[in-house]
Amino acid sequence: MTVDMKESSRRIERAGEILGRVRDEVARAVVGQRPMVERLLVGLLTGGHVLLEGVPGLAKTLAVKSLADSLALRFKRIQFTPDLLPADLTGTLIYNPRDGSFTAKRGPLFANLVLADEINRAPAKVQSALLEAMQEKQVTLGDESHLLEEPFLVLATQNPIEQEGTYPLPEAQSDRFMLKVRIGYPDRNEEKEILRRAGLASLPQLEPRASRDDILEARGALSAVYVDDKLQEYVLDLVNSTRRPRDFGLALDGLIAFGASPRATLFLVRGAQALALLAGRPYVLPDDVKAIAPDVLRHRIHVSYEAEAEGVDGEEVARRILEQVRVP
């Protein structure tokens, strides 16, 4: 084994230890929901924003708060409401009448982890205030742009069943979320554990298990995870099959209005690398790509009116593609 390979293995092992500590600490507060916690760690590793969708009571907010408590990072929570203003997120300029100057009052976006709770309760004008921060990692106040400190991550939640007083995310913003994770109900044993814990006076106090430097170190190890050329071709086949399904022999004619954007290609590879790193592996398997693909693709495949009439959504199209596109 060469010196470079030994160093890469050491970095991957060290990153696995860091993330394992964080995952175990979150599990002290959150019962079950391992896939959701894993996807939050994928976002933390890759710098990709995460949208959590599920009915109320499935520990979405608790999971994000627990992750923040397990990290020595700055955390802010924003409760989105219909009367929220863009300045409530970004901050504003304060005028000083003594010398006629303006000073920047920074909003809650100036944090490492930002929880956008019930993001679909605010109108598009407020949601769009996030766009610059999510894509450019900066916030503009007046004539000046202020860089956000890494790591910077937006973790948003939304309720899919409540329609009154909600605003669907614009496609441009939805595409900026690396993952859209759908949260399911706990199984019977997990719900029994929730019932047992309900008698506790309070949730356990979580302790920071990783510093900012630890997270940046773990991120640095991501590039050391090997992705074979055949797997890269597989990712390209998956994404291109959402745009030209007929070229791949898929019977999806008339169901897809717009396919996945190039962000899907990048996020599929980075997400698969992150899953491999979480598993302590220095290489990506096809199963890693297949595991992360639904979360990357479900909000990037825009179905036609005909598909909606048949009850087919982006998730169902992604499922059919994953079943039929040849795995290397």
Briefly summarize what is shown.
Helices cover 45% and strands 17% of the residues. The protein is an alpha/beta fold. Helix 11 packs across helix 12 (286-297).
Q: What is the β-strand count?
A: 13
In terms of quaternary structure, what is this? single chain
Helix content: 40-55%
Distance between the termini: 27 Å
CATH architecture of the largest domain: 3-Layer(aba) Sandwich
Looking at CATH, the homologous superfamily of the largest domain is P-loop containing nucleotide triphosphate hydrolases
- The CATH class assignment of the largest domain is Alpha Beta
Which series of helices and strands comes N to C? Answer: HHEHEEHEEEHHEEEHEHEHHEHHEHH
**Order of strands side by side in the largest beta sheet?**
3-6-9-1-10
Envelope shape: globular
* Helix count, DSSP H or I runs of 4 or more residues: 14
Protein described:
It is a single chain. This protein has 328 residues and is an alpha/beta fold. The protein has two domains: 3-184 and 214-219, 3-Layer(aba) Sandwich (Rossmann fold); 225-324, Helicase, Ruva Protein, domain 3, CATH 1.10.8.80. It is built from 14 helices and 13 strands. The protein has helices at 3-27, 34-46, 60-69, 87-90, 124-127, 129-136, 171-174, 188-197, 212-222, 229-241, 262-278, 286-297, 305-309, 314-324; strands at residues 49-53, 71-72, 75-79, 91-96, 101-106, 113-117, 138-141, 144-147, 153-158, 177-182, 210-211, 256-258, 302-303. The strands form five sheets. Strands 3-6-9-1-10 form a five-stranded parallel sheet. It has a two-stranded parallel sheet with strand order 2-11. Helix 1 packs across helix 9 (212-222). The longest helix has 25 residues, at 3-27. It is globular, with a radius of gyration of 21 Å.
